[in-house]
Automatic annotation (TrEMBL):
This is Exodeoxyribonuclease III. PANTHER family: EXODEOXYRIBONUCLEASE III (PTHR43250:SF2). Keywords: Hydrolase, Magnesium, Metal-binding. Transmembrane segments: none annotated. It comes from Actinotalea lenta.
Amino acid sequence: MRIATWNVNSVRARADRVVAWLERTGTDVLAIQETKCADDKFPYSVFEAAGYEVAHTGFHQWNGVAVLSRVGLADVEPAFPGQPGYGDEPAIEARALGATCDGVRIWSLYVPHGRSPDHPHYTYKLRWLEQLRTAAAAWHDADPQAQIALLGDWNVIPLDTDVYDVADFAGHTHVTPAEREAFFAFEQAGYTEVSRVHVPAEHTYTYWDYQQLAFPKNRGLRIDFAYASPALAARVEGVRIDREERKGKGASDHVPVILDLENR
DNA sequence: ATGCCCAGAACCTCTGGA
């Protein structure tokens, strides 16, 4: 089985490109982030015509996450237990969606950006990651054999070698010790970040800004990751970062991360 | 080469993204 995660930066602007990619790569399950649309504007029919079931949560033009599957889609949850809200009257945002696809519990995750280390969005980001880790630990404790995939745009640069020049991020989000600690805490919860295991090369990126020739100059960031529970990690045969997908007109600023699982 | 911000809402220019 082939599963993947991709921040598509608007599903309506890129639906045809996503379908073409699904068919070209033979991907069975895709977690997508930043759909940037409300549920009633999601282009369901484009994906259904290609043979995929769709689960989506989106309230307006921001955030939005989905799971597409051609191997079954069940037990959809539009948020994780304890997921924090944001704002003066805290509201749950469309940043997490869970669904079970052929025995694998898939979570499509769009971690809050943080804006800047002195912004309320930053403390929200840390709280969000901590609550997700708490939920993920509980899932694993409840069933140590569960196959769980935490897939998405984590908005954290875990290592200095995950960015073209870490000095450019001094004073910014994504590289602070608290964010990195929150990211690596998933290891203590029993999860393994399998893209690092299979693609360990330094300066391997998943995102390049649209501005200032970032992609041709390879000024990118590695911020899209796949944490797997032990039972799922043992099943991962390979991981690929599809850098080709950043090329050409109409590309997202992120590229897909693909996991190949041993067939059961 | 991959090419010098993009998408959405609204209809002008802001918000958010990193």
